[in-house]
Amino acid sequence: xxxxxxxxxxxxxxxxxxxxxxxxxxxxxxxxxxxxxxxxxxxxxxxxxxxxxxxxxxxxxxxxxxxxxxxxxxxxxxxxxxxxxxxxxxxxxxxxxxxxxxxxxxxxxxxxxxxxxxxxxxxxxxxxxxxxxxxxxxxxxxxxxxxxxxxxxxxxxxxxxxxxxxxxxxxxxxxxxxxxxxxxxxxxxxxxxxxxxxxxxxxxxxxxxxxxxxxxxxxxxxxxxxxxxxxxxxxxxxxxxxxxxxxxxxxxxxxxxxxxxxxxxxxxxxxxxxxxxxxxxxxxxxxxxxxxxxxxxxxxxxxxxxxxxxxxxxxxxxxxxxxxxxxxxxxxxxxxxxxxxxxxxxxxxxxxxxxxxxxxxxxxxxxxxxxxxxxxxxxxxxxxxxxxxxxxxxxxxxxxxxxxxxxxxxxxxxxxxxxxxxxxxxxxxxxxxxxxxxxx
Length: 440
Ligand code: HSE
Known about the structure:
six-stranded parallel β-sheet; binds L-homoserine
């Protein structure tokens, strides 16, 4: 009789409950794929299971996650508690420290402590796997680590947060407010417990930091990610983007440039018709550019069934002895990343200005751009919106006029300096809105 792989599961939230269900429902299939049964031996949970319908069978309840990590009745610890600190960190360290394999979906933990955990795993001959930490059901870790093992990667970018993509999609398609769409995403259970993690771009930043390491063979450097969220995106931006042939997405981008590796998260304009632009709702997408192939993976980035499938895939690898270094090469061989400063970022820009509606304003804006040698692809001035005091007489109306600029490729520095110069001339009624354009 072949010995089963005995699983200790820490965390019975949405993903943990879905893992229990998948291990039970696909027991025979998994045993065939893994060459031996995979069984839940013990679990630990501070709350009752999220899904009351799950059957925990004969699994033992262990009160403390660190005790579970060290429990002699398990072969592998599956950490699904989340959070970059304790108890997740001490639990994972306890298991790896005694040479016990760990499978986790914890993007914050891997983004912040991935390299030290990989070193600890290697030192003790343990496996550390985290397919579920990035883009849920999309097998992007394996794609970068094994599938593209022979390719030289130049850029990885994508929609890595379903909550933000859901909000931006609903706002654009239904002309609804940001606040309204966020409430709906929370009601549907997409958002993190603290939605600032989603909408502020921090969840995406953790994920792109992990992908950067895998793509470029560098130590994870989450501190280097330039992060902007979607809070400032207005319906006016989404409508202008639509009219100009773009969609707005929150992208995580990691790119090799002449100045180093750029890691950035920000709302981004992508051309309508590109694969990324058409990925709507809660779906995620990851595009990879390499010397061998450019490809885009699209799929569910969150939720029980998708994320548990990634956790169980790591369990199958472990059960049948397939092993990879966590970041695709021994931790000692990971390179120190050279950070590319955001001011040196090069690309096209969308700029929305609220311009004071009087003669000479356009000339002032054009002069500011020309002063930084910024070439404009298009410039559109719209009719001012309803004026505060009503009336049609332009002389009595001081309401600002929206001016939309699309630039050809320029640098972040040049755009910031040009806008500061225009602001100094007193022709803007509000802070400029700037959205970077990503070539796809
Ligand atoms: N809150 C995340 C999202 C869940 O919306 O994509 C998966 O990390």
